[in-house]
Please model this.
Amino acid sequence: MNQMKRVLSYLLLALLAFSSCRKDNNDSVFSGTTDERINKVLGDYQAALAGAQYGWNARLETAAGSVYNFHFSFNDANRVLMYGDIDTLTASERKESSYRLKALQQPALLFDTYSYIHILADPDGGVNGGEYGEGLHSDFEFSLDSLAADSIKLTGRFKGSKMVLKRASQQDLQMWQNGQWKNVLLFEDLGSRILNYFKRLNYGGTQYEIQVNGVERTVTFTWKDAGGAAHQHTTGYIVNGTGIQLTTPLVDGANTISSFSNFSWNTGTSSFTMNVNGTTPSAIVGAIAPVVVDLEGPRRWWNFMAQQDGYWATVNGFHVNGVDDAFGLRGIPDFMFLVFWPRFGTDAGVTYDLAGWVHNLGGTPTIMFGAAFEPPQFSTNGRVVFPYYGTLGEVPPEAEDPYVNTAVQFIDPLGYYLVQTSASTYDMVSVRDAKAWITWEY
Model:
């Protein structure tokens, strides 16, 4: 037993000696203090960022899965010039702002003054079309994950979006400067030229209705086959300097659509011309009716709220002839939103619906006045008409024109199609010419 204790004691002493040696060796492995090592890492990133003669191509994937592209040119004075493919303005006007490299939990790149990259992360949905309070689930502060000779990988510090920088060539920069990126983004700007809600692409002998969602970067195709059966295909897309690449190509028998390129506006035919799959000329034109009418859409939209004594809401009112909030609702003092409330009340035996104007009354959303309608008239061809019943409440002078114009638009005798765009949103589109519509959500 004593011999075993002595052996164990020798082993313990040996381990302590070995441990001491390892500690001494570790002390000699690293040169400089912790701050010096961190500053060296930051200096390496700084040298890389500012040392790229033609800047950096950036591919940003938001936490929601949408992909955006930027071009950054950094200098040693903490300034950065950028383009972004958010819209035609950000793709054509180079913006200067500031940035910082900072040691946080790990080295980080911070865009510290408002710039194009902040637009995606802005919590105001009115800025980017995203969710209020969330924006487009993106970042403007990034952890620096890795540095290679020609690339840098980053992760958003709050939303976890992913960004990869790749060293740009002179040609890459020129594609932004000469308007190629701006031209590609005409695809997301169809509504500025084609005023009809419905837009059609004729390809391979088939009429495809096309809806582009530039916020989520998705495109939806709707069509009928030779037998009259309806089909729909929704896919994401990625913008590049030469065109639009569909994440999942549309396959319709002999027709396959995987990309669009070479966009231009033809004034004579009021159409967007382009090449499909790189080589086949085609065009997108306006239409006054959907390819496939949702025959139950109006009734489904109305019943959804009628059954729960709820309402649909919109902050912009009607879009007319290419103009959002065409009747100026948002310019009315204290206006918050417009609601459509089925079976809002009963008067003289008539149960009426209400387009109610909600204002901020002492901090409380309150219906101040509204246009009342008799029960809606649903047709078998997928339309709804709103017969006018009267005005509820007193309309203040500053709201009179917006109120009257909105009410007159509502009671168009030709009525409306209801297009369901998500589980919680519908577009109510004028049958007359499809140049007026309103988006309802809950």
